[in-house]
Design a protein that fits this description.
With about 230 residues, this protein is an alpha/beta fold. The chain is built from 5 helices and 11 strands; from the N terminus they run E-E-E-E-H-H-E-H-E-E-H-E-E-H-E-E. The termini are far apart.
């Protein structure tokens, strides 16, 4: 069964139904071109219901498991900061702007920002779902943008990716963390697909297509679910 709903990543209009989430009464469609599995817009949660789900999460600095999880992303960011710093030193330009990082989809607590600031990295929070965490300045540019477990939630992923690119300085990098469905024995019963706030699901092929869609290349890291796009 195909649907006329376009793929939110590559805009293909030949998606095929592959599974049904009986618990949340929503279908999953796969794109034959980029392999993104997505949930059609009419089955997305309302913003208020989505926020209510996030309120149940303990994504705070007092949660050691969450901090350990974020620290893996922070380590990747620190390595890229070091690369950029050494590159800037070779230029020896006193007017070179300070390295800046944007935590895109930071959540209410912006815990990753706190971790990176504790490592002397200039990090700014942004999450469109929380009024008190607005984009600091849309004309600002960042050397690194981190989206940690964010892209699976994005309603218009193509638009949000273009926004990220527009906020990058030349030579900047985007760090993405999301779990891949490659190797999942049963997508329908995969716990990650059972979260109703998750509406996009990625394979290795999808991540490659994602990078090429914004004229970037994909780099893998030692973590199977953390990727660098630049």
């Amino acid at each position: 069964m195909t649907t006329s709903t376009s793929c939110p990543l590559c805009n293909s209009n030949t998606q095929s139904l592959i599974s049904q989430d009986e618990r949340h009464r929503r279908p999953f469609y796969i794109c034959p071109d980029c392999a993104l599995i997505s949930v059609p817009p009419q089955y997305h949660l309302s913003i208020q219901d989505e926020l209510s789900r996030y309120a149940l999460h303990d994504n705070t600095l007092s949660n050691k498991g969450y901090v350990d999880f974020l620290s893996e992303v922070a380590d990747v960011a620190v390595n890229i900061v070091s690369e950029i710093s050494h590159s800037n030193l070779s230029i020896k330009d006193p007017k070179e702007p300070p390295i800046k990082l944007l935590d895109f989809g930071c959540g209410k607590e912006a815990a990753l920002c706190h971790l990176l600031r504790s490592r002397a990295i200039d990090c700014y929070p942004y999450d469109p779902l929380y009024d008190d965490l607005r984009l600091p300045n849309v004309v600002d540019k960042y050397d690194i943008i981190v989206a940690c477990e964010v892209i699976e939630h994005l309603r218009d992923i193509s638009c949000e990716l273009r926004l990220m690119v527009s906020l990058l300085r030349p030579g900047g990098a985007i760090i993405l963390r999301t779990r891949l469905y490659d190797g999942a024995p049963d997508f329908q019963n995969w716990w990650y697909a059972q979260d109703p706030t998750h509406i996009n699901f990625f394979s290795g092929k999808t991540m490659e297509k994602l990078a090429s869609s914004i004229d970037k290349r994909l780099e893998k890291t030692e973590h199977h679910d953390i990727f660098i796009v630049r």
